[in-house]
Every structure is written in C-alpha cells, then in structure tokens.
Amino acid sequence: MSEVEGTVQGHRDGHGFVILGGGQPDIYLAPQEMRAVLHRDRVRVRVIRMDRKGRPEGRVVEILERRRSPIIGRLLHEAGIWLVAPEDKRFGQDILIPKNGTANANAGQVVAVELTEPPSLYSQPVGRVTEVLGDIDDPGMEIEIAVRKYEVPHRFSAETLAQTAKLPERLRATDLRHRVDLRDVPLVTIDGEDARDFDDAVYCEPAKVGRGKGWRLLVAIADVSHYVKPGEALDHDAYERATSVYFPRRVIPMLPEKLSNGLCSLNPEEDRLSLVCDMLVNPAGEVHAYQFFPAVISSHARLTYTEVATVLANTRGPEAARRADLLPHLLHLHEVYRCLLKQRAQRGAVDFETTETQIVCDENGRIEKIVPRTRTDAHRLIEEAMLAANVCAADFIHAAKHPSLFRVHEGPTPEKRTTLQNFLRTLGLGFTVSEEPKPAEMQAIALATRERPDAATIHQMLLRSMQQALYTPSNSGHFGLAYDAYTHFTSPIRRYPDLLIHRVIKALLGRHRYHLSLEGLPPPPVGRGGKVASSGGTESAVWEAAGAHCSANERRADEASRDVEAWLKCRFMRERLGEEFPGTISAVTSFGLFVQLDELYVEGLVHITELGGEYYRYDEARQELRGERTGVRYAVGGRIRVQVSRVDLDGRKIDFRLVRDASLASLAPRPAGRERSPASAQAELVDVQASDRAARRSAKQAAQAGSKRPGKGGRAVAKGSAKAVDKDRAAAPAAVSANAPDVVMPAEPLRKPRRGRR
C-alpha cells in the first residue's frame, strides 16, 4: 500500500485522521494508532485497507514532527498522581506531571504544559507546567484558554515592540511628500459605538457622470503600508497573526496599539495618511470611473451607526441639527447607497435575512444578555461603499495582470446543491436549482420566501449550501456577491490580505511590481494543491502560500471566537438549569434536534433519547425526524418548548429536554399517507411517553435501556446517557455548524469598467 504524509487531527472519541490537503481524502486512524501520536503531529502513514464506503484507513509508519506548542488544560490530583486534562479534547490523552513539575500550581487551576516525553503505544505523555493561567472562574480566563488552545499569537516580539516605540507620535513633513492633500474634504468615519480603530472614512458629493447626474464617492483607507514594511519585525508579526481576533470585551490586534489605535486610525481632527479610492457612480449604481492615489486626510467627525441612522430618519430632528454641517454629505451618501442597492438587485447578488446577535457582558466579563443586532441604513451604507472600493481594487489589479490575492467564493458543490433541491421540494416550493447555480437563483428563492414564517430556516439552508470564501491568487469570482473579481482592500489595520493589496496598488501607481517574499516568515500551511510552497518557489506559489496562510488564520480566529462565545453561553445557561423556554428547531440530525431559544438566542441539543420511547426515522432530504408509530415529525423550523437539563462547561455543550405539555400537539401535523388524525396521533404519543416514563422509573441500570428495533432506516430509541449524547453530538455533520461564507454581507456595486459582467 502507498505511504503519504500529513497532519494528525484527533477526535474526542479517541480515533483520528491524517489530513493530506489538496482535496485528497483524509485517512482514518484507529484509537490504537492514536496512542503514539497527538493532535497536530506530522506523520507518515501507510494505507492498509479501505472500509466499506471506500475510505482509507492507515497505520502510522513514522512521526516526522512533534507539535511544540504548549498544551492547555486543568491540573488534577487523582490517587496521588498529578496530571493535566487537555482543554482541547482532540488530544485524547491526559498528560502525566511529575511532582516537581507542577510549578506550585494548585489542583483545578488552568495551566500550560510542555511535553518532556511524547506518548508511545505503551505509555502516556509526560510534561511539566510552564505557565499557571489561574482559576477557571477568573474573569477573562475563557479568552486566555482560547488564545492558547488555538495557538493565536497574542504577544508581540521584542523586536516589534522596539520598532513600534521608534515610530513618531504624529505625522512628519516627509510623510506628506507625493500625497494629495484632502484635509479640507469633510470625510467622516462611521462605526459602531464600541469601535476603537477607524480604518475607513467616506465622503460623497453630486457630480456630473458622462452627460448625466451622478455622485463622486471617496473611500479613504488608512495607509498601513507606509509604516509596516516588508521584511521588518512589524511585518513578521502581522503576517503571523494575519488578522485581528475579536472576543467579547477584548481584541487581539494584528498591529500594536500605537498603530491600530494611533497612527493608522483615522481619528477625528487628526492628520492621517491614507490610500484613497475615488469613484464616479452613475444613477444606475455603476462605477463609471475610478482612481487610486495616496493622500493625507483629516476626519471631520467620528460618527456612529446609531447617530447616522437617526439623522437619516429625521433630517429635522435634534441629532440632524447637531450635525448640520455634515447633513448634506450624509444625504448624498444615502443617495448613492440607494443607487448601489439597485445595482445589487439587478446583478442578482445574494442577500439573506439572518439574525446576528451581540453578547453584552457585565463588568466581570460574564454574559448579561444576548441581543439581536439591529441593521440600519447606516450599516448598509458603509458596506456598500466598502464593497464598491473592494471591487475597484480587484479590477485595478486584474487589469494590470499583477499577481495578488482575490477573495474567492465559489458556488454550491453538486452534493450541497442536491441537498438544497431536496429540501426545497419537501417544502412544496416550486424552485429548481440548476446544475451550475447562479447567484440570482439563490436570491430569487430568498426574496420569494421572505414573508414565510419559516423564512429564517430556508435562508439558513441556502447559506449552508454555499462554500466558504478564501484568499487565493486564482481569481474565480465571488458567487455570493455576484462579482467577476473581488478582493479585500478596506481593512488593512485588521487583515493582512488588505495590507498586501495596498502594497500592490502602490507599486502599480509607482509603475513597478511588488514581489512578495516569505523569507523569514512563519511557514505556510498545506495549500490547496497539497504542497507547501516556499519563498524559493515560483511567484504564483508564494502568493498561493500566503493566501492559504491568511485563510487558515481567518478560520482559526473564527474558531477561537466561537469557542469563547460557547463557553460564555454555557456559563450563562448553567444558572438556568431546570428553566423552560420556547425555541425553534435550527437543525435536525440522526441523533437529535438542535434548538435555538427564542428569548436568549442560545442553541442546545435535544438528544433523540429525550423524545420518548418511539422509533424515529431520520429523513435527510426533509431535514426531519419522524416517529414510525405515531407519525409525529420534528423538522427544521418547528416550534417546541424545552427545559435546560444539562450544561457541560468543558465540552461547551448545552442539552435540553423536551417539555411534555399540550403545546406539543402543534408539532404533530398529519403524516402523509396515514389516516390517523393529529389528535389521535398525539394521544398515542402521550400513551407511549407515559409508558416510557414508567419504564425509566423502574429501570435501575443502564444495561436495561431497552431493545433496539431494526427497521428500514429507523432508529430504536432507548435510555441514553450523557456519554452517548456527547458521542453522537461530536459526530454532527458540518451542516449543523456550517461556517457562513461572506454572503452575510449585503452585496454591492458591480461595475467593471474594463470588463463585462458574468
């Protein structure tokens, strides 16, 4: 059998996989094979067999590289033995700690461990405590755990700090050379109330476009590339992080605070360097012409979304009076926004109605409440302007045939397209998804179902059918936004790809090329081709490696943020054990229902063992569980009432129990092809549940959990345990927690001055 190299990815159930990359199938490692390796080790494996589904299973031949990063976990003292239980359950093994290796940490504290002896087939790993983070209940501990668990760089190097200290406090005369002076133009920043860095400012005025009326739209972006030069310590740290990471009440920035909140932040009434995209927009919402140039600006005001929305809603109100000098420009911005909005509709870009939430924390960093984010015209106005500038940047670079990074988002895969088609068919919707779907098809479905009571569910399924966006030098367009070419230009303070785009644009303006080098930078991860590009490779390989690195670190930042939010939500719900809440079924799997609570915006699992002594058939096409005897169905979008039954803080899991009351009748629509009425079906279900509860009360041991009934795809439900719940839950398909692509951003102006639309 063949031998291949890859990276080990552990699983909380004890087995693992070797990730090869390049679209190659992952290789399964049995629990026995995982005893000698750890999550993220690099190994060579030999494929020894194929399972019944044609998936390869391997045996570890050689361990090429051991992971070197510290492992985070809880220090425990059991039967006289010190050990650390890793926070990341994918490691699968506890780490033994000698008595002299505890660094005076107390049992129960969170620590960082460095391995001194790797695991083998016959022994556990051994390590020593290198850092004591504190008690699990300390404020902010969940963030300290996450940044180490996901290996997020959170300390700048001494060289970077020294270089930052030498930067000037304000602009010097030499900084203004060869720049357009726009300090008299009333550019403004519009951000959230809690924003601390401002990397974009906007201005709009009426202008003549061709023979008709139009608008001149200026988008000024902080010129980070003036301070962060290739090859310097600042650039090294920025590349290693690749993005800022946002947690509730804390941000781990890509750049030191002196830059992110100082020199590169477009603070009001402060002279700042910027790179400007100057656009002419016609009444059809098309960018008629554009140009880029370096400039010096001075933001005339720091506005918030709430403030601008209030002004636009009432131009004669007190808020508008307070901003009387800026009111005409804000109205012009709103006018150009409406034109760009029309162009988005004509282009058929996808715009889903999804509910985004915001966590509000108290002074101790614990959740006080979770509230839905309110999106106003002020939010959309800024998004439209930023997307217009991003499209111009992509067009400018593409027309010059210069290598760069594009933000690529491809359409649904054939498998996801089929799943979506089946789901729409089961709802009785007369929509078809073509073999090669277009954005306009998705948008047509979204618009047609917007007023349905299950609109959120349908839009969520549309969103899950799409692939993740990534950074790559190979431009294949942006499906969700319906652009032929799209890139990220507008946030160089917090995204490294934007910084690279700035360098490319400035090089083109100077009539030379920008040559990307990865010399001295952290090694890139495995790229899409399955090979690691090096700085000594071809230019396209180097850009491919940079794109893979930035995409991987973007995913890492998202995972770390979600992990912290999940921990906070579990802590929030731990105080509500036993309470009942109404909710909506957000996902259905073969092992249960994921339910989002209406009032708290928290998601948990109703395991199939909690649905009563009934045999349920999982219908993937309909996204539902159906009882074989009663015909009761639980489908995505269904309304149920649940009780909080269990919270696993370490596993970041919340479990619900179905509440048995009269409201359950609404969940039992008449099954197709059966003569039984909903009322009789409900009565039978109540009888089944009563007998099930009686059986549970009399059963004293888990071994008497009931027999499983074989059936055509059916599932026999017996008494379950918390361990079984966790095991099933860990096997949830990706659709349950699908990563949302960029489509959540409203799509924008198209206009490729030198190319036609797709």
What does this structure look like?
With 758 residues, this protein is of the alpha+beta class. 27% of the residues lie in helices and 25% in strands. The protein contains 16 helices and 32 strands. A five-stranded antiparallel sheet has the order 3-2-1-4-5. A hairpin with an 8-residue loop joins strand 7 (81-86) and strand 8 (95-97). Helix 2 packs antiparallel against helix 14, helix 3 (158-165) crosses helix 4 (233-241) and helix 8 packs across helix 9. The two termini are 46 Å apart. Residues 525-536, 661-681, 699-724 and 731-758 have low confidence and may be disordered.
What's the short story on this structure?
The chain has 758 residues and is of the alpha+beta class. It is 27% helix and 25% strand. The longest helix has 36 residues, at 539-574.
Treating each run of at least 4 consecutive H or I residues as one helix, how many helices? 16
Rg, Cα atoms, Å: 28 Å
**Helix-strand makeup class:** alpha+beta
Main sheet overview: 5 strands, antiparallel
What value does the average pLDDT take?
84
Share of β-strand residues: 25-35%
How helix-rich are the residues, as a percent range? 25-40%
Rounded to the nearest angstrom, the distance between the terminal CA atoms is 46 Å
Looking across the biggest beta sheet, what order are the strands in? 3-2-1-4-5
Number of strands: 32
Uncertain stretches: 525-536, 661-681, 699-724, 731-758
Give the overall form: globular
